[in-house]
Design brief:
With 362 residues, the chain is mainly alpha-helical. The protein folds into three domains: 4-95, no CATH class; 105-207, no CATH class; 217-358. Helix content is 63%, strand content 5%. The chain is built from 15 helices and four strands. The protein has helices spanning 4-7, 18-22, 52-59, 66-77, 92-95, 105-123, 128-131, 151-160, 178-195, 199-241, 247-278, 281-285, 287-316, 324-338, 341-358; strands at 27-30, 37-43, 46-51, 83-84. It has a four-stranded antiparallel β-sheet. A hairpin with a 6-residue loop joins strand 1 (27-30) and strand 2 (37-43). Helix 10 packs antiparallel against helix 11 (247-278), helix 10 runs parallel beside helix 13 (287-316) and helix 11 (247-278) packs antiparallel against helix 13. The chain is flat.
């Protein structure tokens, strides 16, 4: 996906070639077969499908022309929306790097709770003295300044910076015991000195902005990782408790293996994000870089969720019947994504040979 800042991306799909004004209801989407970005147009009662690269070549729209640049943006936009027409707004991920969707309030609270716990752990750590020896500048108005947060709940406490812990507001400072509130208040002050910003209020804003970015990761943890685990558990149960013969057994075995590989890969992505956020001072010191890291993973995970949603929706409905057709569809989904390339090529070659043999005339 192109860097919106570098391309000065427009906020809507604007194409100037005359062809786009005379076509009947042109629409951009991904091909159902291989996910290639395509233009779909109506020709009477039929549809014509043209890959965007072929479109650029056929009508003379190289990447350095306005329409060529827009087609590149459209291809990136299809990672976040299912289709787009001329005149439609481009998704926020393409325009300014923010998100075109929202996490729930529970996901924000989970993110805030994690940061709250990390602040307490850091301020009570015996290594605190070492952690504060190398101050580095942090910016409260960097790339993530527009992320959602709970700054209104900080209210007067953020405005004057020094307030009795008995009157701490909600949000980051929503605690179950006054002693915890005092520790968080102390942690914000210590962090301000460590990273070189002006007082605990500035650190509080950084923390809440970071929580807003982390809320997207928490939403995707629920919508992708947890649902993948549920799907994998059903496949594991089938592998242990059903005993189909022949080709169905081979399909089940492959789906079990490939779904485990997929789950491990996706779980590793979440683990990498969690590891980078585990030490609260490090992301605060490198605030803009950390926000960019969170956003890159947010977008990767969101694209992944969109790809997995249809197959996970089907598995949600599986109860006690053997889902033979669904297992075949799941295999076709998993194999090109998670099977080793050499193994996938060999299977495709073998399948092509079987088809050729079936149609051979002696």
């Amino acid at each position: 996906m192109p860097d919106p800042a570098a391309t000065n991306a427009p906020d809507c799909c604007t194409l100037v070639h005359r062809m786009f004004s005379v076509l009947e209801d042109p629409i951009f989407r991904r091909a159902e077969t291989d996910g290639t970005p395509v233009l779909v147009i109506r020709l009477g009662e039929r549809e014509a499908v043209l890959p965007l690269r072929s479109l650029q070549s056929e009508f003379g729209m190289p990447d350095d022309t306005s329409d060529g640049r827009m087609l590149v943006l459209i291809a990136g936009a299809l990672d976040f929306v299912s289709s787009i027409r001329p005149g439609d707004p481009l998704p926020a991920e393409i325009v300014d790097g923010s998100a075109s969707w929202e996490p729930g309030p529970d996901h924000l609270e989970t993110a805030v709770s994690k940061l709250r716990q990390q602040l307490v752990a850091w301020v009570t750590s015996p290594e605190l003295a070492d952690a504060t020896e190398v101050p580095a500048a942090a910016s409260a108005s960097g790339a993530c300044s527009s992320a959602p947060g709970d700054e209104a709940s900080f209210g007067a406490w953020l405005s004057d910076g020094e307030t009795d812990t008995a009157s701490l507001p909600s949000g980051l400072l929503r605690v179950t015991h006054p002693a915890e509130g005092a520790l968080i208040h102390e942690a914000l002050g210590q962090a301000a000195a460590a990273i070189g910003v002006d007082g605990p209020a500035a650190v509080g804003r950084l923390v809440m902005t970071m929580a807003g970015e982390m809320a997207f990761i928490e939403a995707l943890r629920a919508r992708l990782l947890h649902r993948m685990k549920q799907m994998a558990a059903k496949i594991e149960w089938l592998a242990r408790n059903s005993h189909p013969e022949g080709s169905p057994m081979e399909t089940l075995t492959q789906v079990r293996r490939l779904s485990a590989i997929a789950l491990k890969e996706i779980a590793a992505r979440f683990a990498a994000v969690d590891e980078r956020t585990a030490e609260v001072l490090r992301p605060l010191r490198h605030f803009d870089a950390h926000c960019a890291f969170l956003r890159a993973n947010r977008d990767w995970l969101y694209r992944t969720q969109r790809a997995w949603d249809p197959i996970m929706d089907e598995w949600d409905g599986v109860t006690d019947q053997y889902p033979k057709a669904l297992l075949s569809r799941t295999y076709r989904f998993l194999a090109p994504r998670f099977m080793p390339v050499t193994e996938w090529v060999e299977k495709q070659r073998a399948e092509a040979e079987r088809k050729r043999s079936r149609h051979m005339v002696w």
